[in-house]
Amino acid sequence: MTKRLFVAIDMPDAVQRALVDLDPHIPGVRWTEADQMHLTLGFFGHLTEDVDLALREKLRAIEFGAFFLPIQGIGTFPPKGAPKIIWVGVGKAHPHLFQIHKRVTEAALAVGIEPELRAWHPHVTLARCRDVSWQSLKNFLRDNGEFDAGLIRVEAFHLFCSELTPAGPIHTCEMTIPAKE
After folding, report:
1. Which CA distances in Å does 169 have to 4, 36, 37, 120, 160?
2. Which of 6, 60, 149, 167 has the CB geometry, 3.0–4.6 Å to 43, for a possible disulfide?
3. How many domains does the chain have?
4. At how many degrees (to 10) do helices 95-110 and 49-60 cross?
5. Partner residues linked to 67 by β-bridges
6. 99, burial (CB in 10 Å: exposed 0-12, middle 13-18, buried 19+)
7. Nearest to 5, CA basis, from 47, 37, 38, 36
8. What pTM value is reported for the model?
9. By residue range, what is the domain housing residue 107?
């Protein structure tokens, strides 16, 4: 049996509500449920139980200090042409965020998980788009491009299991790695 796993930072409730309130209710744009909004540090796909257990051991060993992260700026993937994803970014982010991402990637490599080859662009997925033109999002993006939800304090990251369902993915937190004091 395998599990579909990823590591992410959760968004605080107030930020989740602010992000949900941005929903422009445009046909073809499926907004993410508040409790599913997170910043992915690493996606691993389907892992066998032995690799899952080895990964958990490596993740538990990651040490980091708490830090603040801005949640700001809205854009799309791809940046040009028909959008597939609407996201909110993390401004200029924070060096600690990139350190955690690097350590999560190293933990995955150490247990034999192939790394993601694309460059990492830290973001929170707000919506998935199907058959949506850039034109239909133009006003929303213009009006919200500079959106700023303020700073969040990152005090932990989590290992999630992701189960795909017809209604969308269901993410369940399986392990928390807290910041060191």
Report:
1. 11, 8, 11, 21, 11
2. 6
3. 1
4. 140
5. 154
6. middle
7. 47
8. 0.93
9. 2-178
